[in-house]
């Protein structure tokens, strides 16, 4: 498969997780359409690998997370639960895979966008909550039905849900497991916006291109600083300050100044 920054493709978990990159825009596609893109254990394991390869090998400046076809994701593949989540011991191992996937998205060095169509349930909701930005097609549906299955949602994923929804909406979402509309998710602040069906791909692409056009080091510093504020982490804030200071000695800063003076678009390389 292709291995350049401008034309990159790599499949994981038998093709059910796909990483692609072009124009510095990476995409992780969840592809299990026969089960509404439900995420198997192998797919959970592959998501951190896909995020890592897009940043380290394909040099993506932004990553879009999306599902194949009509749905984002129905969440964890319940058909596996009799084996991978049959008791507390296996559940702990399984939830470690969940946590690693959520962490890979949450801590990804580049901005992440959840592009949501159709169903966004359970673990799919958790993946979307771990993203920096979320846009949905009008009519998308959201739910975290863990309590209806008699299980608790992973605690680290609850952190993302609280940050994305606010405490009260997070409580009603987790306490009831009830489906919610894209309109309600916009009002709650979970979604940046909801887009009409015929304009959805265009709007997602426009946002990704607007982000990818900017300097990667500056984006990284900004993302770390925002995380530090959200998590109230002094060490992370100091790390963001160090990276922010490095931008002033970067080639991208020189390029940004030159482009401004010459009234042209800058071409940033992340150096």
TrEMBL record:
Can you cite a GO biological process for this protein? fatty acid beta-oxidation
Which Gene3D superfamilies does the annotation name?
2-enoyl-CoA Hydratase, Chain A, domain 1, Lyase 2-enoyl-coa Hydratase, Chain A, domain 2
The GO terms this record gives for MF are:
lyase activity
Q: Does the keyword Cell membrane apply?
A: no
Q: Which UniProt keywords apply?
A: Lyase
Its signal peptide is none
Pfam families recorded: ECH_1 (PF00378)
Official protein name in the record: Enoyl-CoA hydratase/carnithine racemase
User: Which residue ranges traverse the bilayer?
Assistant: none
Say which family it is in: Belongs to the enoyl-CoA hydratase/isomerase family.
Native organism is Rhizobium hainanense
- What PANTHER family does the annotation carry? ENOYL-COA HYDRATASE, MITOCHONDRIAL, ENOYL-COA HYDRATASE-RELATED
